[in-house]
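Internal QA ticket QA-208
Title: Verify multi-chain structure generation after dependency bump
Assignee: T.L.

Test input:
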Amino acid sequence: MDSPCTVRGMSTPGQQAPAIETEGLVKVYPGEVRAVDGIDVRVERGEFFGFLGPNGAGKTTTIRILTTLLRPTAGHARVLGIDIVAHPERVRRRIGFAMQTVALENLATGRENLELIGRLHRVPGPELRSRVDELLELMGLTAVAGKLAGTYSGGMRRRLDLATALVHRPDVLFLDEPTEGLDPQSRAALWGELARVNQAGTTMLLTTHYMEEADRLCGRLAIIDGGRIAVSGAPTELKRGIGSDDVNLRLATGTNDGLAGQQEAIARLLEGFEPVRGLERTADGVRIAVVHADAVVPELIRRLDGDGVRVHGLTIAQPTLDDVFLRYTGRRIRDEQADRPLELGW
Ligand SMILES: Nc1ncnc2c1ncn2[C@@H]1O[C@H](COP(=O)(O)OP(=O)(O)OP(=O)(O)O)[C@@H](O)[C@H]1O
Ligand SMILES: [Mg+2]
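Actual output:
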């Protein structure tokens, strides 16, 4: 796991520069809003890197700085070794930024949109035609290439956006919430396309607040909150760092009193049982944090055999990036939590 505090020196000329490197990046908006509060990150060429964080974490601001659309208040950033403040036009030639709105969607077909963007990037004619065919194929848009882009579904539009960002063969592709608002099938399809673009050699920097998206796509990610990186590393490594699984026990009860009594009994019976790292009451039982749950569940159940504990159901959940987020920020990332009705007892 990378330390969030490590400040590495920026690469020196002569070395193969990394795809992205920032040092002490800060953005303060008018009204003293510190949207980005000292971000140090290094993304190597060919990586699929993610910024995972809740609304307002500073993800879009960071990506707008790196794509030269916004000037940082302080700090430094280089893309492919090029300083983003000193040479923004050189940076722009080498990068793609997906999710730009398609300009002529009601007047032009998917193919025409791609050709237009290609000409803006001065891609030579014959090369442009074959590149456009290749991208339409890669994004699964060949069959609808001759249709007006305005008639495309949400998923097709995102794929066309992605194709437009790739016309000039950028070395680094920036994606800001690429699957926001898509239905699960379109999201899964777009994940496939993004993975293929990365496998073809493009470095990817993606922002998302979907844990599953970050988990599936990113080789490494940074959890960002309040404009700072809370922790970074490979998803598997971050999850392993949590060190325990959740064992959820559903208890058979007739009355609430019965539930409370059993919860207390469980706490008592498991006292001193070494693999147990924590115990939390839930609406219908308990959640127990257990090291190597698969191996110790039989012993755990044996210990609970007594004192009127009646286990009705048991599930084991491996840690998620949400647990990682909780560990490092003290809060949950899931926005689904906000939609959940409050559980009020009466
Ligand atoms: N132009 C602006 N002027 C002032 N404050 C801004 C501006 N843009 C963003 N902010 C503030 O900066 C903070 C970070 O915003 P940002 O859009 O970078 O977050 P984000 O991580 O992309 O969030 P989301 O998940 O909602 O897209 C927020 O508090 C936001 O309100
Ligand atoms: Mg954003």
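Spot checks passed. The chain has twelve helices and 14 strands.
Status: verified.
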